[in-house]
Structure formats: structure tokens, C-alpha cells
């Protein structure tokens, strides 16, 4: 909708002529100014134009909001799925490590027991040897005294 601007070209031309401007120049200036004002007014937005743009902008904003929400929901679902997959993988890794730890603990206990038995055998032999020597020393001392 074009807004109407009241501009009296005749009165404007007469004022210019009273100020000393020649009549043809005053008439030409009055027509040129009227044309500029009319063209300028056509380019101005009206309240209806602004309301139309506002409604279109709101509709576009609503579309973007809905699309963004859908994208966020999709990304959130994908992230949850990835996290569940990682959690499952980590649980499997932890279980495997627990099994390896239990197995290693069992091997270490077995090796420790074997080493302890060997140490016990060596100590028994050494103690037996010491007893034999002690008995020998006692026998020699008995004979000497």
C-alpha cells in the first residue's frame, strides 16, 4: 500500500518564483521534487508490509526451531547409542582384565607354593646336615672327654 503525501507543486513553484527563480525552473523543480517524494514514498514499508514480514519471519523461525529440535534429538539419540556401545565395550574389557588378573593371581600363588616347597626342602636338608654335624661333634667330644 502506498502512503499518500500531500505536496502542492503549484504553491512550491510560486514560492520559488517569489524568491527570484525563473518560472520554468521553478515548475521543473516542483515536478522533480513531487516525483522524488512519490517514488520515495513507494519505497517505504507500510505497517501491513512489516506485519507480513514479521509473520513470515516467525514462520521461518518456527521451522528452524523445529528442525533444530529434530537435529538435537537425532544427535542425542546417536550419542546415547554410542555411549551405550562404549559402555558395553568397556564392561567387556573390564571383565577380560578381571579374568586375566584372577588367572595371573592363580599362577603367582602356584609359583609361590612351589618356591616355598623348594625352600622348605632345602632348609630340611640343611637342618639335617647341621644335625649330622652336631651329632658328629658330640660323638667326638664324648670320645675326647
From TrEMBL:
Listed Pfam families: CCDC90-like (PF07798)
Keyword annotations: Coiled coil, Membrane, Transmembrane, Transmembrane helix
The UniProt record lists the keyword Coiled coil: yes
Top-level taxon: Bacteria
Primary site of residence: membrane
Compartment list: Membrane
Protein name: DUF1640 domain-containing protein
Native species: Pigmentiphaga daeguensis
Amino acid at each position: 500500500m502506498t502512503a499518500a503525501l500531500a505536496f502542492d507543486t503549484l504553491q512550491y513553484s510560486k514560492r520559488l518564483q517569489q524568491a527570484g527563480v525563473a518560472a520554468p525552473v521553478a515548475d521543473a523543480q516542483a515536478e522533480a521534487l513531487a516525483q522524488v517524494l512519490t517514488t520515495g514514498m513507494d519505497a517505504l514499508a507500510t505497517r501491513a508490509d512489516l506485519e507480513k514480514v514479521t509473520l513470515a519471519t516467525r514462520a521461518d523461525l518456527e521451522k528452524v526451531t523445529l528442525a533444530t529440535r529434530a537435529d538435537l534429538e537425532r544427535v542425542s539419540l546417536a550419542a546415547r547409542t554410542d555411549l551405550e556401545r562404549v559402555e558395553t565395550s568397556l564392561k567387556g574389557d573390564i571383565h577380560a582384565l578381571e579374568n586375566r588378573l584372577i588367572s595371573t593371581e592363580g599362577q603367582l600363588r602356584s609359583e609361590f607354593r612351589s618356591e616355598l616347597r623348594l625352600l622348605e626342602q632345602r632348609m630340611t636338608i640343611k637342618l639335617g646336615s647341621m644335625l649330622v654335624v652336631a651329632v658328629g661333634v658330640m660323638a667326638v667330644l664324648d670320645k675326647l672327654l
